[in-house]
Design goal:
It is built from 14 helices and 5 strands. By secondary structure, the chain is of the alpha/beta class. 37% of the residues are buried.
């Protein structure tokens, strides 16, 4: 009988450890607006404040996967060219890089940021190459000049404020070449009704962006479920009245890109199994498709959309 309390304690400890180990990972999906007009260039600032309350441990963004030249595609051709040159021309001091990667950014100077920038270029890591180039130019001071772009104003500010050292690129343009030209041709060949529906969606979105921008709620507007659905449909011409070979080409290329992105995200989470809360910053047109694909591929992953974030903040 004297051993009963000890056995009960052991049982409770085992149960706690098991429950903790089974706790699912979470990913917050944030749809961004890419480049904003100058009049609303501060629109990312309230988004940064809101996401910080979620206390994320890892940030993923719409950059090509490290070293994957096929996934870099034509849109990242300049970076790919620079990477292939640096790959053979740059010989990093591995011990120096190891130390710099473990040193808080607040303790690094411009020259050390440049060293990291050069290193990440040499391994084809576009996300961190861009981030450390930004830090080399602007430092990690509390104040920063808004550019109206999701990279310096949202992704890099989160990395800076959270004191994280590495942002993960999860985009893929593999097989994506020809999407834009096929999309344009498909749009031109659509029926009158199809074009009308498309133009109506674009017009409604323009006015929605204007009103949201003026009221300071652009991030919230863009991440509403109906807005994300609108961008998803615009980017893949999912309207009655569009069909044909070009339509099928652009549709497949768009859908394949989102599937590949979801797979890359799951690879990052698998390699960072100790991380519970992560954030994906991605173009608003991708947010819906990627979230659905993640749920399909990994049912145990907890997917949180930005519009519902307030219910998941401590």
């Amino acid at each position: 009988m004297n051993n009963l309390p000890k056995l009960l304690l052991v049982f409770l400890l085992v149960s706690f450890v098991t429950t903790s180990a089974q706790e699912p990972q979470e990913i917050l999906i944030v749809g961004d607006m890419h480049q904003l007009p100058g009049i609303v260039k501060r629109a990312y600032k309230p988004m940064v404040k809101k996401i910080l309350k979620y206390e994320p441990e890892l940030i993923m963004a719409e950059y090509s996967k490290t070293g994957d030249t096929a996934a870099m595609g034509q849109w990242n051709a300049k970076f790919k060219e620079a990477y292939l040159k640096a790959k053979t021309a740059f010989s990093p001091d591995k011990e120096e890089i190891r130390i710099l990667e473990q040193t808080p950014n607040t303790k690094l100077d411009s020259l050390q940021f440049r060293t990291l920038q050069a290193y990440y270029l040499s391994i084809g890591d576009q996300a961190n190459h861009r981030m450390y180039r930004y830090f080399a130019r602007h430092g990690v001071a509390k104040k920063f000049k808004p550019y109206g772009n999701q990279n310096p104003d949202l992704t890099f500010q989160l990395m800076r404020k959270l004191e994280l050292k590495k942002v993960y690129g999860v985009d893929s343009h593999k097989g994506y070449q020809g999407y834009w030209t096929a999309w344009q041709r498909a749009l031109k060949s659509g029926t009158k009704e199809g074009k009308k529906a498309f133009k109506k969606a674009m017009r409604k979105d323009s006015w929605g962006n204007i009103f949201a921008g003026v009221s300071g709620s652009l991030g919230r507007y863009v991440n509403k479920p109906e807005t994300l659905d609108k961008y998803f449909r615009i980017n893949s011409l999912r309207y009655e009245g569009f069909s044909g070979e070009d339509y099928d080409i652009q549709l497949k290329k768009w859908d394949d890109r989102n599937v590949n992105m979801a797979k890359n995200i799951l690879d990052v989470l698998k390699n960072n199994a100790n991380v519970k809360r992560s954030v994906l910053i991605v173009g608003a047109g991708h947010a819906k498709a990627v979230s659905e694909e993640l749920k399909r591929l990994s049912p145990n992953l907890k997917v949180i959309m930005y519009h519902n974030l307030k219910n998941h903040i401590k």
